[in-house]
Design a protein that fits this description.
There is one protein chain. It is built from two helices and 35 strands. The protein is mainly beta. The protein has one domain: 7 Propeller (Methylamine Dehydrogenase, Chain H), CATH 2.130.10.
Length: 447
Amino acid sequence: MRGTIRNLWTNHRWATIGTVALVTAAVAVVGYLVLKRPGDKSCQAPCTITSQAPTPVSGVTDWPIYGLNPERTRYLDSPAVKPPYSIRWRFKGGHLLEYSPILVGNQLFGINNDGLAFAMKASTGKARWKQQVAHLNASAPAYTDGVVYLSNLEPGQVVALAATDGHQIWKHPLPGRTESSPLVVGNEVIVGCECNTVYALDKATGKTIWERHVNGAVKAAPAYSDGIVYIGDYSGELNAIRVRDGSIKWQTGSQGTSFGRSGQFYATAAVAFGRVYVGNTDGRMYSFDQQTGHLAWSHSTSNYVYAGAVAARTADTPPTVYFGSYDGTFYALDARTGNERWSVHDLGAISGAASLIGDTVYVADLKTTSTFGFNVANGHRDFEYTDGAYNPVISNGKELFLTGYKTLYALTPGSGPAENGIIQNPTTPAKKKGGQKKKGGGKKKGK
């Protein structure tokens, strides 16, 4: 063997060098192809979706859970709710309000980042009750049958409170933290846990009905449609779980980043048009077939996609997915193909989910802590208010309820001179001579 090698080097030196170089280059190319970031997936023919015509809301309606409905589509077809708005009342939340409240009848139910739960009248903005239930919270409540359900980070638990006065009905401790906004399906309260588990609890007693271990921490809220819960985890898998017994229908993975690393599903999924739409920390928005979990398409941004998506078809626009990225861009993608319809750049990092009310989609950013409203037809900015950071708005079909950094606002549609979609106060009449001077100076800021 040693003689063979010496002979190759002596008599075929340049050929040997060339061969080694080619093998080295081939190994490098293979390594690059293996380790580089995978390309986006395009939707293959026939690339079909299901789509139903929107049903406009008439009168006042509820917003009883995070994302409006079990599918978490975040779309309320209420054309009368549109800029400009007048500010009817303000409510101080005390600390960071990372998630919007929910709305049932004339009541808003919310919880701040420090775990203080509260109920207030939507008509007046006055608190009805407050209840300290945790030390740290990063999720929205859910309501059904006179009970408010909350999941908390510290301590990790699910709590049921009476909607009338906030007294505790039951509490279920978890072996890990949870920021998974609860979902109520039938008699089950479903939440995810950072302990790599999805739980279904009895809504009357809090006792465990079933639990499903998955391969990573669960931080997203569960979305639901036709007997199946859809929820991602931090192993980079999206899980379709049967509500009746917690069994797995299908599991599918993200495409991941470079060097074979998997992305993580922090965002809550939206189920619409026969697809499941969900963002990932690998910077992509994904569209999976609802029945099989097969990847229909993926669309890359330049940074994390923490935010849940709006999935909607309006009267004037095709089925579209709306979401923000940490890259400071807000995207509107064709729900069928993943192609971009329009986008808005140069915003701050977007972490919270958007909401679509009528023909305006609202989103907040972390850089300016402002809330923006864009026309769904073309992305034109129709609204801007200098408060907001995460999940910005909900509606009852009559008014808009905006979540600022620490303050809630009731906004009423109206008319008159407006700036950035906010109706300006009329000019103060001139004071009579000798009138008492007004104490204090300057306008109050939005926060």
